[in-house]
Amino acid sequence: MRTTINIEDNIIDEIVKLYNAKTKTSAINQALKDLVLALKKQKLINLRGKIDIVDNLDELKKIELFKAGSYE
């Protein structure tokens, strides 16, 4: 998708150098992908201690085996 935005030249130059990118577009795309991933990771980290997770992996495996017809 084509978008017109104003980004400071020094920021673009730095991103291109950091990613060793061949084009400004590829550098900006990768930087934005990395930013999204980092923000998602931070959101997960911020949930630490706030939600209760029950470890029921063994139970889920038994259910899947039962559904698949492999009884243990």
Key terms:
single chain, 72 residues, elongated
Structure description:
The protein has 72 residues and is mainly α. The chain has one domain (9-68). 64% of the residues lie in helices and 0% in strands. It is built from three helices and no strands. The protein has helices at 9-19, 24-46, 57-68. It is elongated, with a radius of gyration of 22 Å.
Total domain count: 1
As residue ranges, the low-confidence spans are none
SSE series: HHH
Structural class: mainly alpha
Gap between N and C termini: 52 Å
Oligomerization category of the chains in this entry: single chain
What is the radius of gyration computed over CA atoms, rounded to a whole number of angstroms? 22 Å
Q: Name the average pLDDT.
A: 89
* Beta-strand content bin: under 5%
Helix content: 55-70%
- Net shape: elongated
Note the main sheet: none
Number of β-strand runs: 0
The helix count comes to 3
Question: What's the structural blueprint in terms of helices and strands?
Answer:
Blueprint: H1 9-19, H2 24-46, H3 57-68
